[in-house]
């Protein structure tokens, strides 16, 4: 393809020596599960998120969500509010804990619509999952105010927002517990699966650790029936290297986003709307267009890769439509926009000339 949606090989080449040394070091030590690399990365990542935050590495982002929700020990038959426009894991984690989902519509920033969120809160709602979608921080001030008013637990899903800030504060440091994914395509991605739980509540994070480590904090100690979810040392070593570059890579994403805003502002596209108090890291740059098929055809002809995030709103998928574990409710924006949203190439791999080429095609 002339312009790649994502180019992980180019990223690797830019830090090849450091990555190769990190991998070799793990192999040389032959400590592949747990150990100093994982512990060091947990400390470095928690410091990156903010003061007072502790971190726990796990197998992947979905595991992190499932463990976080289980650790909250919500009452049986509790309902958890989840955005209608997000990756399926945000809702799967609720169902896999034996709880019920109620979907909340998205607003112009693609996060939880505050009006619809308040309307969806009923007596059986006990928690909500806040997804900082596309690298755009959700409106945490109003969300936390509602959570306090209705005594709701807050789980932050930060899988697409490594380093994003709301009012100067990193996402992942607002809720009761937060989760991150290190899937390879993320702003901070491993060379395989990986995930992280973070929280300012030490006892809650210890409970998460207990769940993730076969129900105990020491080997052969099983206080509860847990599971096996661990971040391996190889991925931790790779992520330690990449964490040192994350701010630079995010800065480049912001430059690309600014080029899109300037180049497409007068065209027939609805661009992301972001309040001034939010610092986005642009995991994805998503626009809405009336005739998406025609736009995709233009981009395909120009050999420009695109993505769809997400082509079907979760309430409309077979897994969640008219199911007993879903409290049915309308999500008008998510349903109307699913046929219009389009993800443009985004990442530090893009050269200015490539971004200009994309804009030129879209301006036709």
From TrEMBL:
Keywords recorded for this protein, A-Z: Aminotransferase, Pyridoxal phosphate, Transferase
Pfam family, one: DegT_DnrJ_EryC1
A single GO molecular function term of this UniProt record: transaminase activity
InterPro entries cross-referenced by the UniProt entry: DegT/StrS_aminotransferase (IPR000653), PyrdxlP-dep_Trfase (IPR015424), PyrdxlP-dep_Trfase_major (IPR015421), PyrdxlP-dep_Trfase_small (IPR015422)
Stored CDD domains: AHBA_syn
Family assignment from sequence similarity: Belongs to the DegT/DnrJ/EryC1 family.
Name by which UniProt lists this protein: DegT/DnrJ/EryC1/StrS family aminotransferase
Protein species of origin: Helicobacter turcicus
